[in-house]
Design brief:
globular, single chain, Deoxyuridine 5'-Triphosphate Nucleotidohydrolase, Chain A, five-stranded antiparallel beta sheet, 4 helices, 14 strands
């Protein structure tokens, strides 16, 4: 399989000394995955309906989504608090541990008025300022999404950027959850970056290809890991040795 290079470089070389480096998402898991059991019974077995007692932790499509692409982590601790503005109105304020960057900036509320906001989140948008420039080969773009299956105090908006042509860093708009105050730790995944090749797609319709069912019937002669063992292709997101080491 062809290897595609995706390059992360800091907006300034001096930042390489303190920025948390992006990493393959597959190398870390949300806390709930670590604590979740693979089977909802005490052992690997079948239930009364002849079905495996697997949990979502054993679902390969979900695990592939969690581990797809790369995470850009927060470079430092972030403190979220409520303060009063000059009109004595309570607002959300951010402080961060590094003094030589501006990690969070507000968006004007008017920029997103009328757009559906995630349930349970404040309506005022903010953005994470990202200090990594992402470069992909010709005809490759990046999908930016909130880290998949992570329950965080904030939720990022999704977007696509043609990173083969865009020469600057991409910042990430987000909404903070209602009532949240306290610490967001350094290293928390800020965004998930999924590179993909731009193609021209054409939607077609056809009759069901029954021969594909034969593959499923053959595979389903097993009880466990049918998709994983017969249909799944391994996804590889590596990281090369950093030249700054």
């Amino acid at each position: 399989m062809q290897k595609i290079d995706i390059n992360f470089c800091p907006v300034d070389d001096e930042y390489i000394n303190f920025l948390e480096k992006p990493y393959p998402a597959i190398t870390k898991n949300p806390e709930w995955v670590k604590q979740f059991n693979t089977y909802y019974t005490t052992e690997k077995k079948l239930d009364a309906y002849n079905m495996p007692t697997s949990t979502i932790k054993n679902c390969m499509p979900v695990r592939d989504m969690i581990g797809c692409g790369y995470h850009i982590p927060l470079p430092c601790d972030v403190w979220v608090e409520k303060i009063k503005d000059k009109n004595n109105k309570e607002i959300t304020n951010f402080r961060w541990a590094l003094n030589n960057i501006r990690l969070v900036e507000p968006h004007m509320k008017e920029q997103s008025d009328g757009m559906p906001v995630f349930e349970g989140h404040e309506k005022t948008p903010f953005k994470w300022n990202n200090y990594w420039i992402i470069q992909t080969p010709k005809n490759w773009s990046c999908l930016f999404i909130h880290p998949s299956y992570y329950d965080l105090p904030f939720t990022c908006l999704s977007a696509i950027v043609d990173t083969d042509k865009f020469p600057l860093s991409v910042n990430f708009p987000f909404f903070i959850k209602n009532g949240f105050t306290g610490l967001i730790k350094k290293g928390t995944p800020m965004i998930q970056v999924i590179p993909f090749k731009r193609e021209n797609f054409n939607l077609t319709f056809s009759k069901h290809k029954k021969n594909l069912l034969y593959d499923w019937y053959k595979a389903s002669s097993s009880f466990f890991n049918i998709y994983k063992n017969n249909f799944r292709s391994k996804k590889v997101f590596n990281i090369s040795k950093c030249p700054f080491h």
